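Recap from last week: sequence in, structure out.
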Amino acid sequence: MGPVAIPLGIASLLGLGTVAANTNQGPPGLNLQNVDPMDALKYLSPNNLLMNDLITRLQEEDKNLITSENSEKDQKDPTPEPPKDPFTDLQDVLQIKRAVDQMREDDSPPLVDPKEYSPKMKMARPFEYVETVNPIKIFGNDDVRKVDYTNKDATPISYTFSDDKLEEIKNKTLLEFEERTGTNVKALVDKVGFKMPDINTLNNSLKRDEAARYWYERSSEYFNDFLGDLPKKDKAKFLDILSITSGGVTPKENFKIALGVFSDYKAGRPIRMGFRQTASLDKFLKQPDAQINSPKFRNFTDSFGYFMGTTDRPPNTVNDLQMAAIFGIDQSALAGNPDLYSLMTMSLNNLANEVNETSSDGQELLQPYQLQSILWTENRGGQSTNYAEVGPEVINQMRKLGYEFKDDKLNLEEITSADFVPSIQKTVKPYEDSIKMTVESGSFLTQAGMKIKQLVDNFSDDSVLMDQIGKVNKSANSQLITKKEKQPSIIEELFSVVTGSNVSVSRMQKGFGTFEGQVGDNVIIPSIYTNKKGEIIPLTDDQRRFSLAILGKYLNQAATASSNFTTIEPGEEIEEGKNLTSSFYVPETGYSPDELKKVLDLSGYDFNVFPVPGGFVLDTISFDGKPDTEKVGKAILDVFGEDTVVEVVDSKWFGDYIGEELYEELENAFKKSITEGMGEEGNSSKSFDNIISLIKQIAKNRDEGYEKILSSTKVINLLKRANIQLKRRGGYVMSLPKIPSLVKGGLVDINYLTRPINNGR
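Predicted structure tokens:
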């Protein structure tokens, strides 16, 4: 980027007045009226050397950088005239910083007026919005990255908050937030709650030691050493993965999950680790060159990256669900409301600033991210568990499993071995070995479903209509596997009835499958469960088939199926009863039902699609020998682009196919097993009848969703324009074509001519 001209004194053009209006955002004791804008710029970044260098470059490379009517006079006499507005200088500084940020070519978003963000923009760019509301993240003019925190003692904080002071800071923060953002603060607080942290928790947190205060700094030093000589890009990717997998787990467990995900990522394998935030990782890995847009995850990453040198962006505070609870905010509302995140950040800034204003000269300033870490630690019972503390424990566990981790450092060759991930997470191998049940809840076999099929047959190019139908089917699928208020999912209840004991089922997910030329949403259910002892046990063949039959019958399916796909090792023989096939791993790629339908049409092979974070695995289904790998691969490239990465492996598969003609037989066999006293607990006719009613309710909800679509104005208008009348039991009637009375002197077979119109009926 070349020199940038920045006009001073016109901050109003950018609407920065409200951003600059809080003098407490600067270092304690700073009088903005007496500070040159170029000097004040230093306070906006802790990296003084870099900032000073950039300022010098700007001055030397372009004498016209700062333009005004008196620019020539100003350069001869650098002493500025006292501003009429005490905040004018800082407004000017913020404009300069915007240009400097751009010249730095880092990932900091430009500073704009937070009021310019519509609700839609806030949700689309939440991280950027938080940055505009809280542009200053670090207090003081010292480079905090030059400090060695490994053996540094935290300076005792003698400040004690009073109830009155907390109330004062709360009111000030709410007023400041409303002025800066234009948000109706009262409405926001009334809806989701907000308070200052409990005074005892807050004051006790100020007494926490260096392990808690320097949580991010010490963790960063540990990771910088642990990751050793990895390229900067790989270090940044590991931190991203660490951040995205951090939700709802301890730092120790988070570290193990991140190691496993990073292992498969670097090896080019589908991600096999199980964890809560798979959707977030999926979104991130599908855009490998994009930055994390979530404020929590992004600030978490950059809190480490800033001290490790993978980014120059000073981080805002990391506000997770625990921090939301500390501030009395509805946790369920946090992820979908960037205003809440910004409000917590501003509160932490103002609380830290209050402590700093009373500090003696030369005392180490309390940074907002440090206040967040000690509050978080105190709220968890006082145990800091930073990564420098838990990391060695994890490495020792790995060593007991046979991995060296020489010199306490990560070795890519060691962790990318195929057995690393199954070694560190016990659920991986049972899941890989399990037979997966693929169950659809959408159906064309009910009266409503028959009509929906007619819409699909006639208006498949109407993306809005297809999306509406898809949402109904996805909702029905979700009802099968979702836990509500910690209650077991319907699948877990079904497995409990089938096994005769209370069980839990993990790693259920949504996927896609093909059947009779169509692509449908399904749920992928591993036929394994965890009992009360924590043992992972597979369903028996009979239990699995019973389950498939019960789901198929009461969800109105023509058939249900299960399958297991396993990679074939070189020289391995195929056992009797198993089929040779191919599996295709497509990383860094999103997909839609329409795209999968095109792959189906181009390849001619049925398949199951298993989503994995960042991509998908497409397992081809063939009963006639190995599919034409080249044909399937070409279909994938034709649909998703020639630059798409496609990894192909030979595999074998086997499974169940339960047609509707078998449902009654299998259900009766199961009922008989109940009457004979099968199972240890909870297995009774009453519990069986209950699970049947739950499955029936899903089917009922689905058909009600179909009926809403069928009666919608959109569908009515579509049918009118096409002159189509839906038939109750499938097929459709429309205005007939003009038919000649005679063809070559004979009568016309009206049934034959109208066959295409009536779907062969």
